[in-house]
Amino acid sequence: MDDVVKPVADGWQLVVAALVGIALIVVLITAAKVHPFLGLILGGLTVGIVAGQNVNDVIASFSTGFGDTAAGVGILIALGAMFAKLLADSGGADQIVDTIVGRASTAGLPWAMALVGAIIGLPMFFEIGLVLLMPVIYLVARRAQVSLITVGIPALAGLSAMHGLVPPHPGPLTAIDYLHADLGVTLALGVLVAVPTVVVAGPLFGRIAGRWVDVAPPHTFDASDRDESAQRPSFGITLFSVLLPVVLMLGKALVDILIDDEEQTFRQVLDVLGTPLIALLIAVLVAMYTLGIHAGMERKDVAASVEAGLPPIAGILLIVAAGGGFKQVLVDTGVGTVLADWAKDADISVLLLAWVLAVLIRLATGSATVATITASSLMIELVDGLSTGETSLVVLAVGSGSVFFSHVNDAGFWLVKEYFGMSVGQTIKSWSLMETVLSVTGLVFVLLLGIVI
C-alpha cells in the first residue's frame, strides 16, 4: 500500500514536515517523558498533517506500516526472546561464560569477556545480557584484581556490537525490513564488521578506560550465591543451539550466491530453512530439547520458560511496530525521495549519511531502536539501485550510528552506571566513550567494506 498517501507538497515542505515530526518525537521522549510508542504515533501523524496530507490517508498509511512491521519483524523478535529466556533458564548461558572464562589467563581475561559478550549477545537483548553477565564480571574482576572496567568494558562491547549490528536484534532486523536488504548477507557482513569493532572498543579500549576509571567490584552476586548443583547443557550443545539459526541464515545466503539455478533442490531447501522466520522457529524448537529436556528440565518448566520470554518484550514490539507506521508515513509523503535527490546532487556518501542520521537521532532520543527506525526510514529511497551488498552496508552504517555516545537520556546509561557503581562522570569516561569508539570503528570498517563491495 505504498500509494496510500499521495505526495502533494513541495520538497521544502516535506523536509520541514519530517523535521517537525522528528523534533516532536525527541521532545516527547526526552522532555515530556512520553513512552516512545506514543511518541512515534504522534510524530507520524504530525509528519503527514504538516506535509498537507488528508488525515484519514495519514492514519491509513500509519496503520499499514504498523501492521506490516508487526507481522514481519515482530514475530522474529518474539522468537528471539523465547530462545534467549530458555538459554538463561537452562544454565546454557552460564555454561558458555564459565567455559570460556575458565580457560583464560589473567592477560587474556578481557579478550575472553569480549568473546563471552559477543556470543551471549547474539540471541539476547542488551539489557538481558548485561544482567546475566554482571555476576561473572564482578567475580572475574575480583579474582584478577583489576578494575571492574578492564573486564567489564570488553563484555559490554561484545553485547552492544551484536545489539547494533547483527540480526536477530530488533534494530538490524527493522533496518533490513525497511531497506529490503538480504538478511543472510547482512548477517555475514555484520559479523565481519562486529569482530574487529569489538576488538578495538572492547579489550583495547577497556585497557585504557580501566586506567581512567578504577572501580572495585562489589560483593553482590558472589559465586557462593549461585546454584552450581543444577544440571546444565554441555558447552558444545549450548554453542550448537546458539549458532544454529546463524548457520541456517548464512547457509541460505551462500547458496543464493553460489548456485544460480533457483530450481535446484538443495538451494530450495536451504532457502526455506534459512528464511529468518523458519531459522528462528527451528532454533527455538531445537533448544526446547537440547537446552531443556535433554539438559534435565521438566516439560512444564520448558513451556514456562518459553512463555516467560514474551511479556518483557511487549514494549519493544509496540515501539518497533509504531516505528513501522512512522516509516510508512515518511515514505508515502515522499520525503525520502526529496532527500535522495538532494543527496545525489550533493554527492554525499550514502553510508556516511546513514550513519550521521542515526547518530543525530541517537543523541537526541537516547534510543538505539528509535534511531535505527527513523534513520532507516529516511534512507529507503537512497538505496534504490544499490547492490545487495551495498544495501546491507547501509543497514550496518545505521546500526553503527545507533549506538553512538550513550548519555543521560539513555536507559542503558543508568543501567551500566548503577551496576558498575560509578559516578556520572566515570560512566561517561568509560561506557559512553566505549559506545562512541564502537560506533566510529564500526563506520570505518563499513566504509572499508564499501570500497571492495
Can you tag this structure with a few keywords?
single chain; mainly alpha; disordered N terminus
Task: Explain what the structure shows.
This protein is mostly helical and 453 residues long. 76% of the residues lie in helices and 0% in strands. It has helices at 11-30, 36-50, 55-89, 92-102, 109-121, 126-144, 148-165, 170-179, 183-212, 235-258, 265-273, 276-293, 299-308, 314-333, 335-346, 350-365, 368-378, 388-401, 411-420, 424-452. Helix 7 packs antiparallel against helix 9 and helix 9 runs antiparallel to helix 20 (424-452). The radius of gyration is 22 Å and the shape is globular. The two termini are 32 Å apart.
